[in-house]
Amino acid sequence: MLKAPFPLSVVIHGHFYQPPREDPWLETLERQPSAAPYHDWNQRIVDECYRAVLAARVPGPGGRIAEIVNTLQFISFNFGPTLLEWLESNASAIYRAILESDQVSRRLAGDHGNALAQPYHHTILPLASRREKVSEVRWGIRDFRRRFGRDPSGMWLPETAVDGETLDVLAQEGIAFTILAPHQVKKLPASGLPGTFRTSEGRAIALFVYDGPLSHGVAFGAFLKDAEAWVRAILDPPASVEPLETGTTSDSSPAGEEPGGGPHAEVAGHLLPRRLVSMATDGETFGHHHGFGEMALAAVIRRLQALEGVRLESFASFLARTPPEEEVELMEPSSWSCVHGVERWRSNCGCKMDHTGTTQQEWRWWLREAVDRLADEIHGVYEEEAPALMGDPWNARDRYGEVAGLGPEVLHELVRELATRNLQPMEEVRARELLDLEHQALRLFTSCGWFFDDLAGLEPLQIMRYAARALELTGPRQAELEEGFLSQLEWALSNEEPPRNGREIFLQEAKPGVAAPLRVAAGAAAWELVGSGSEGGEVPGFHVARDDQGLFRITHRRTGRQWMVEARARRPSLASLEVQVRAAETAGSFAPLALEDIPEGYGDPIRDTLLGDVLERWVSPELREGLALGTRGLARTLGEALTAALRSLGREKLTPVDMDCVRDLADLHGLLELPIPFDAQTEFYRLLEKASPQDAPRLSVLREPLGFVIVE
Q1: Helix or strand or coil: residue 500?
Q2: Within its chain, how far is the Cα of 172 from the centroid?
Q3: How many CB atoms lie within 10 A of CB 521?
Q4: In whole angstroms, what is the distance from residue 645 CA to residue 516 CA?
Q5: Residue 659 counted as domain residue
Q6: How far apart, in whole angstroms, are the C-alpha atoms of residue 113 and residue 128?
Q7: What average pLDDT values come out for the chain (712 residues) when binned by 10 residues?
Q8: Domain count, the chain
Q9: Terminal C-alpha separation, the chain
């Protein structure tokens, strides 16, 4: 059996985080086709990783389960606050289990929990002003305190990006330690121990430096295929040395590898036994990046726990027993995923996902310039308007972090507490809008927007969507500020063929073609028509009500802003809808909206209802039963029904009922984005060829829904 040759502490850290992709108007995450068969990437990663690490299987003889391990009870971890916010609403059992894991770890380790905090948004803090650093850290601490019921002792930095001012802010706010990669310090502390960093302001914070080669082996999967090899590497890592001379760094791995793939400090001195071996990696490594990686983690946990002389613990519990003995100096600014410091988030430094391609990242500079300029202008609007409503504007923004993820009632109470006087209703609405404006300004710097390779990707697009929402909230200056933002983005080019510039991407994909309140009203009107009073149909970000004149009153829950909207809906066929909307205060014409323009909270139950109505009326009980039992796919069931209806139409006279059946089934294919079956189109064409002069015009109405050229 393996045995530790000396007393040894082992810490494994998992950084759990997902790029935020919620609609900033609807405040919900709409369907992401790239995550299929799941609704979105969050749901997919919940299934592949978060659920798995909370119940990791340890295999026994014969392929049976020996035990199930909640790995979070035994490893250090942090979850991004925006991810926790989503989990709380959408995966509540997983969310509660995460919080309970920290409570269990506290009972096991003398009240030192495994969970660490994180700045609220995944911002590269060395690129932020001190005021932004303070807000992000305070928001993160307050969010952690609300969820975990205690103050955090440690804080994980996004991308471990660090500079001296960032550490000074952490120390100022009461954070005892953070974690860095080996190439982020000039000299490694001896024996794997933490070191002390002293800031220019005279504050001190402990720095843990994780083992680079071990972390790299976990992140890129080598150790996740062989738990025994992982344990052996932990017990016999490269020898620790006492750092007696200034070290150098070298780029020993491809740019952008994450984590542990960067250079490592080379130090001179005499060999010392390690007292701490620590590793850090993305939490999604376990089960998402590497299938069944959580099983290897669970196996390693159990093997380490069985070894004499080994203590598997957290950074917090180790620091409580073993305070730093040495001082360390930073390589600053630096991060774990860019060998050029923090250039990945503002320049074409060469760090990218596709190391073999010829793509350019010059767009990063222009996106950063555009966002920096817009944020400064947003702050100007905020500083101009907020003091008259809420006093100190930056104290108000920091306090907003206490309620950013909570409901409108709590926000209402905060604004009342901050108010310099009794605010009129519209003044309170504006105060809440200003706080939301600053929220969007902080979101603008989410690091994912620059991490990947293309301006046209999901993550830069999300930054532009936050910008579009922020611009709406600036009020009368929206048009002016938007044009300034777009003039910068115009220089940023995508890697598409042909390329698009940032202005085009913003106007085509980020800025809504139809305002969110109108889309919500359209959904409500359509649901009233097809829902028949049944429950369902809602959008979390808005409240919908009818007034005495039949207008829709649409209220934004977070800000309290209201719109009066006229919306009308009709159902030309059993499987189709037409919806028109206009703002009640305008004298303009009604704008038509397609079902795909309606928010998913309404659109999905509407589609389900239309599908059910068509199946009930036109599909045989035998086919419906097969569909319900899962023996036939939906596309096959509907295709067979449509083909059969067309064959029947060819044998009989063109009765209205038969025509309605074909039209409804064809419309349903379009609604569900299903291709019209080959055989159905063949049957229809043959029917057209032999149609009488009287029947041909009647059949022509089916040309478009069945995929044929429209004949005038």
Answers
A1: coil
A2: 29
A3: 30
A4: 40
A5: yes
A6: 29
A7: 72 96 92 89 95 93 89 98 95 96 96 97 97 97 96 98 98 98 96 96 97 94 92 75 33 35 38 86 95 95 95 97 96 96 96 86 98 98 97 96 86 93 95 97 97 95 98 96 98 96 97 95 94 73 91 95 95 92 87 91 91 88 70 79 88 83 91 90 91 89 90 71
A8: 4
A9: 84
Picking from 345, 378, 413, the residue at the C-terminal end of a domain is 345
Cβ-contact 336, 258 below 8 angstroms: yes
* 92 domain-assigned: yes
pLDDT for 650: 74
Q: The tokens 């010829």 sit on which residue? A: 358
Looking at 510, 531, 546, the residue that finishes a domain is 510
Give whole-number Cα distances, 267 to 271, 328, 457, in Å: 11, 13, 41
Which pLDDT score is estimated for 366? 98
Domain assignment of residue 266, yes or no:
yes
pLDDT given at position 260: 38
How many whole angstroms separate alpha carbon 442 and alpha carbon 378? 10
Q: What is the DSSP letter of 68?
A: E
Q: What are the structure tokens assigned to 152, written together?
A: 């955090």
pLDDT at 434: 97
H or E segment to which residue 616 belongs: helix 600-618
Question: Which of 116, 108, 107, 110 minimizes the C-alpha distance to 148?
Answer: 116
Contacts 24+ apart (CB under 8 A), 640-645: 640/677, 641/665, 642/666, 642/669, 642/676, 642/677, 642/680, 643/677, 643/679, 643/680, 643/683, 645/618
Bridge partners, 544 (sequence order): 554
Task: Give CA–CA dist 95/7, Å, rounded.
Answer: 35
Q: What does 452-478 look like in DSSP terms, one character per residue?
A: SS-TTSHHHHHHHHHHHHHHHHTGGGH
| Domain extent for 663 | 619-700
Q: What is the CATH number of the domain that holds 222?
A: 3.20.110.10
The verdict on 460 and 589 lying in the same domain is no
- Burial per residue of 388-422, b for 16 or more beta-carbon CB atoms within 10 angstroms, e otherwise: ebbeebeebbbbbbbbbbeebeebeebbeebbeee
Is residue 476 reached through a cis peptide bond, with omega within 30 degrees of 0 on the bond before it?
A: no
- pLDDT value for 581: 96
Residue type, 384: E
